[in-house]
Design brief:
With about 280 residues, the chain is of the alpha+beta class. The protein has seven helices and twelve strands. The chain folds into three domains: about 30 residues; about 70 residues, SH3 type barrels (Roll); about 140 residues, Glutaredoxin. The termini are far apart.
Length: about 280
Amino acid sequence: MTLSRTFLFLRSSALVALVLLLSSAALAAATPDITAANLLEQERWWPYRASLTEDWSPKEGVTLKSGTQGVVIRVEPGGLARVDFSSDGKYSVPVAKTDLVQNANRIRRGELEKTMPNFTYAITSRLLDSASDAPGPLKPQGSQPRPGFLCVFANPSDKDFPALAAALAPLQDRHDVLTILFPVGDHKDREVRDRLRALNWRVPYLYNHLSEVYAVTLINPEDPIPSVLLQTDEGRVILNEPFSFDLVPRLTAALDATFGGSAPIAKTTSAPQPQQPEDRP
């Protein structure tokens, strides 16, 4: 590369970086301070992880110490956040007992890096592609940014699974919302792929060894199967109910009401001195 071309490249790169920095700063300036009261709707600033700021007892005989860190699954109504504390358990913890608000404001100000929406970050590298002729992970074009996800928890071997697939097939990619199957039960990945292809419901699906882990993380383990979970790319719940054929019209309406408007705003934020986010489980 000649000296002049090098100079032009560096100048254009600097301009791009400046534009991104100014855009992020303008967005932060236009956003009110994050508080426990508005954290639920300010989902784009949710951090990947949260730590307890005081000792907390989720149930009798169990106490999590201040500083215990977990993965943020989502913020919930009522001032709660569902957090996966790994071997310590998964709980809905009061936001006020965590550093969630503090770190959300750090992301908003550009002091802490957030590279993509929370659920997108957690799930896209764990998906297999049933639409591909060759078994394998979901291809990059299939994992493009999505405004939301329709998560389906079902046993592909159930006799009613073909009817479920037929009922939900029209919602696949509606408003760019990605349908994902979380296979329930012990199935080889190739078997799930073949089942989906035979039904012409070629949606991405989770690896067998991860599916149960994510199922008990995202929905109540006591929920009936099959169940559906409609959520945003950050993980905010829109609808979470056991599946029934009567549910499909309400599910369609919820999907249209939430994602049928203008195109979603890119949610990646940039930090002047980014800190690398830790890997999620």
